[in-house]
Design the sequence.
């Protein structure tokens, strides 16, 4: 989600998941190629992924959570590296990675969503 964007989460009992929140100061893509990946995933409204693909993303997310909770030396750098890998993997898994954000009502639905296929 982008800053200031309105959103709603509907969770069922027993739901689990991850919510990533970071400032532009925390993650800056390390090079031009990484900037393009970050821009591409940031401009997508919706990214359905298959269960087996979500599992790969989940491992990356869990690794970030573990780093944050353990706070070992240079944990921030490890999380930033995991973010970069996460964005690459998300771009790979998106059905149309070059499709960018639309306009109008589509902007209200700017959310990443797990959708088992």
Sequence:
């Amino acid at each position: 989600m982008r800053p200031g964007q309105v959103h709603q989460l509907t969770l069922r009992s027993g739901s689990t998941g991850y919510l990533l929140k970071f400032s532009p100061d925390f993650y800056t893509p390390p090079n031009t190629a990484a900037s393009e990946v970050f821009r591409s995933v940031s401009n997508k409204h919706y990214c359905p992924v298959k269960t087996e693909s979500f599992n790969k993303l989940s491992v990356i997310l869990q690794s970030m959570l573990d780093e944050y909770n353990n706070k070992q030396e240079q944990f921030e750098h490890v999380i930033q590296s995991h973010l970069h890998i996460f964005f690459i993997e998300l771009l790979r898994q998106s059905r149309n990675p070059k499709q960018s954000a639309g306009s109008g009502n589509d902007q209200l639905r700017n959310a990443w969503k797990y959708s088992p296929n």
Summary: DSSP finds three helices and no strands in the chain. The longest helix spans residues 51-70. Helices lie at 32-42, 51-70, 75-93. The radius of gyration is 15 Å.
